[in-house]
Every structure is written in C-alpha cells, then in structure tokens.
Amino acid sequence: MRTVLLTLALLLLLPPVAARAKLLPCSEIPAAQRFVNGLKPSPDTREAQLHLDRAKKATSDAACDKELREVDKYARRADAAEKRAAAPKLAPATAPHVQCADLLHQDRPGGTDYRGPPVPGCPKP
After folding, report:
1. Is the pLDDT of residue 74 over 50?
2. CA-CA distance, 60 to 124, in Å (whole number)?
3. How many helices and strands (H and E) does the chain possess?
4. Among 76, 84, 86, residue whose Cα is nearest residue 45
5. Domain boundaries, the chain
6. For residue 66, what pLDDT band results from cuts at 50, 70 and 90?
7. 5-35 as b/e: b if 16+ CB within 10 A
8. Can you tell me the distance from the alpha carbon of 125 to that of 112, in angstroms, rounded to the nearest whole number?
9. What's the DSSP call for residue 57?
10. How far is residue 106 from each of residues 10, 25, 114, measured CA to CA in Å?
11. Which of 26, 32, 39, 101 sits CB 3.0–4.6 Å from 64 for a disulfide?
C-alpha cells in the first residue's frame, strides 16, 4: 500500500518539477521585447523592461532564465491590468428597496416603533 501511495505521490509531483527544469533560453529575448513594447506604460511594464535589460546582459543560461521569468511575471501583471482597464464598467449598484412602515409594520422606517437612521422616501414618525 505504501508503494502505491509513494508512486502516486511521485506521479503527481513530477510534472511541476519537470516543467521547472525547462530553461527559458536567451533566444526568447526578442519575443519578450516585442511583447513588452506592446504594453502601455506602467510600473509593471517598467519592471519587465528592467528585467529584460538584465536578461540581455546575462552571461549564463541560468541567469537569463531567471530574468526572463521575472519579465514574464511583470509583463503578465501589466497585461492583466490593461485588460481590466479596458473591460466594460458595470453600472453602480442602486440602493436596495426599503419597505416603509404601514399600519401593521410599525417597526419599519417611518413607523412609531422604528429605532434607526432616517430613510429617504419614508415619512418621519
């Protein structure tokens, strides 16, 4: 039973580890630069460009990979912010309908038993 659980655990954990093992090569720099150039100016875009400049100066594939992953992180943030800003705005929520006091419900706004703030549209007691 333990071997089955161990095998299952290894199978579940191996794909994320294998995905991390793949390095982003420095040959991806031109594509990253084109993507960053297409973004609107923002703090995340500046950070992405900063890391892209560091990736261009990297002397090893590992250093290039590290900086390109940072470029990816900040570029995704900037892109998501642009998409949120371009999304249609929702109309502001209207005030909920409030039932005012009537003959049988004097504990509602405007009633003699009501103990709360005044409600617009309801008569004052």
Report:
1. yes
2. 77
3. 4, 0
4. 76
5. 25-86
6. very high
7. eeeeeeeeeeeeeeeeeeebebebbeebbeb
8. 6
9. T
10. 67, 74, 7
11. 26
Residue 44: band (very low, low, confident or very high) from pLDDT cuts 50, 70, 90: very high
Instruction: Return the structure tokens found at 1.
Output: 């039973």
Token couple for 55: 């990736």
Tokens standing for residue 43: 């703090």
Q: What is the mean pLDDT of residues 33-44?
A: 94
User: What one-letter code names the amino acid at 39?
Assistant: L
The CA distance from 77 to 89, in Å, is 20
Reported residue count of the chain is 125
Summarize pLDDT for 109-122 with one digit per residue, the tens.
Answer: 999 999 999 888 88
Task: Provide the Cα torsion 120, 123, 124, 125; round to 10°.
Answer: -140
